[in-house]
Write a structure and sequence with these properties.
Layout lengths: L1 H31 L8 H11 L4 H13 L12 H9 L2 H10 L15 H12 L3
Helix pairs in contact: 3-6, 5-6
Amino acid sequence: MKMKTIIALLAGVFVSAVVVAQDNNEDIAKRIMPVGKVHVAGAQAAAAADAGPRSGSDVYNASCVACHGAGVLGAPKKGDAAGWGPRLEAGFDTVWQNALNGKGAMPPRGTCGNCSDDDIKAAIEFMIEGL
């Protein structure tokens, strides 16, 4: 009698475990599903290039103003002839290449990792217009 009870209990536990395992498969799938996506810089830059050129104003307001608006770490402010003058003496192309490749405290492309070369050029032109 005791053996029948033990076998019945074990069978019940086994069946319950199988049912619980099947019920939990959906829960497990939900718990292990991806929570985000990997950002690939080249893909974003390509998407930005496909979107077409942005205006200098758009690039400046989105990416440059944080440093160039306040002169952070010596960044020349928009429209500041005293700040831009010495840099422009080396020529616009030099300023542009410095922006593309980074110089001093400024990282390559500033904070606009998805800007095209032309976007960077437009932002510089926007910052120095009227000088």
